[in-house]
Amino acid sequence: MEPTQLFELVVAMFLAIIALHYAAHRLGLPPSVALLAGGALLAFVPGLPAITVDPGLVLVIFLPPLLMDGAWAIALVRLRRHMIGIASLAVGAVFFTCAVVAVVTHFLFPSLPWAACAALGAIVSPPDAVSARAVLERVKLPRRLQILLEGESLLNDASGLVLFRFAVAAAATGSFSAVEAAASFLVLALGGAVVGVVVGTAWVKFVRRLGDEYLIIAATVLLAWISYLLGELLHVSGVIATATTGLIASWHQHTVFSAATRMRGTSFWTVMIFLMEASVFTLIGLSLRDVVERGGGLTTVIATMGLPMLAILLTLVIARFAWVFASDLVIRLCAPLGFERAQPLGAGGATVLSWAGVRGVVTLALALSLPEEFPGRDFILATSFAVIVGTVLVQGTSLGRIIAWARLVEPETERARLTMSQAEAAMAQAQLGTIQNLAYDPEGNLIHPQLLERYQRRATAIVDYAARTEHYIPVLHAHFDVVLEAVATGRRELIRLHRAGDIDDETLQELERDLDLEELSAISAKA
After folding, report:
1. Angle of helix 213-233 relative to helix 238-256, nearest 10 degrees?
2. Beta carbons within 8 Å of 142's beta carbon, 6+ residues apart
3. Alpha-carbon separation of residue 478 from 200, 393, 424, 484 (angstroms)
4. Which DSSP state fits 246?
5. Which of 43-47, 226-230, 380-384 has the highest mean pLDDT?
6. Among candidate residues 241, 219, 230, 215, the one with its CA nearest the CA of residue 71
7. What is the pTM of this model?
């Protein structure tokens, strides 16, 4: 394929992404489902060149920024609080699922070497960060379940990658050592964490010296790839390195970013992540053509591999349910022994957590990276794709209904001590204290009376609102509806003045920015 044709294909894919996202919104479907289905349909369009996905390149391009985005958005305090539960899912559940899938695969195909069965287990066992985000952004979960799923998807790829590498090596050499695999996992994880700490700390110091907001945004965007590539270069876990770097950067971004940097950087980063997430699902769909052709056609694939693929998909689901419910039972049994910090999820919470194991880009990339001569490669590739499609289409579309059925309630221990209104009241009181100190000159004369009056009035109003939030909500919404109408009127007048030649472009941009900030503030206050 010519470079120009490749670029045209990328542009066409982005246009298709916009159309598919819009269609999903109109039909009430998860965008990931529409993108996956759309990519699969595009793969068989007559005349469209076959899309060959380089698995290593896919991982390097897409995985680091998507991991960074997940780490950036995660609540670090809750991550520490639930680290045992996250480790149970990210390590224990992945190892357990890999073993169960390997046993079932060997039962279905006794002639297939154990190493190949383990490789399939390693490929399909870790739920995917991208797929999990695509599903979770459309549902409302209690904070504990949210942090468990986010933390799992952030860290479990490292477990799957270690298992996969050892399975492939075992297939090549004919030997496998569980002790060596466990030791290697610890080295990779700890080494990745050290690399992440070093890169994250260096970023904090570097950004504080840059001064230019566009350079800061550029350095932050490159941070994901720097930490991942450095980790892989040093033969430790690039996944853990990227996640650790993201957690450090997220913790410090509130103090090293200016308001303008945060607004501009967030806008750029949000669009970039949107396109990357959407591209991943579209590429997965486009890769269907290669999978089907390697298997001898869709009819042949379904006839010869359909039942085994379905059996392995069911095995995945059952294994996750077994691990989650068994872990919840252990927590319940340990409670009388004094282990009261970890609270059981209950049947509803365990069901939701079990059902949320969606697979995606890492599964596909690992399957595609298998050597051509690897035993059972075609079956592993077809099964991996079936697992992705099955979990995204079935679990992704039904998770909302499962959550509604479970009727989950947020435990008191997971609720923040202060509501948003109470936090606003605390900020207003602190700001008023500063104004009261600076409103007078050294001789005690009031030099900022209007400023003092404004902050006093604001603090009083916010404290009153925090105490009677429910009473004020209808009035507040009506108030900001009027503000938004006023902003719209001001915007129309501003554009009229510019079109008439009464103001120049610089004036238009400055006043438009003020209106934009006022509009965003009003919309945020209404939410």
Report:
1. 160
2. 349, 408, 409, 410, 411, 414
3. 45, 41, 20, 10
4. H
5. 226-230
6. 241
7. 0.78
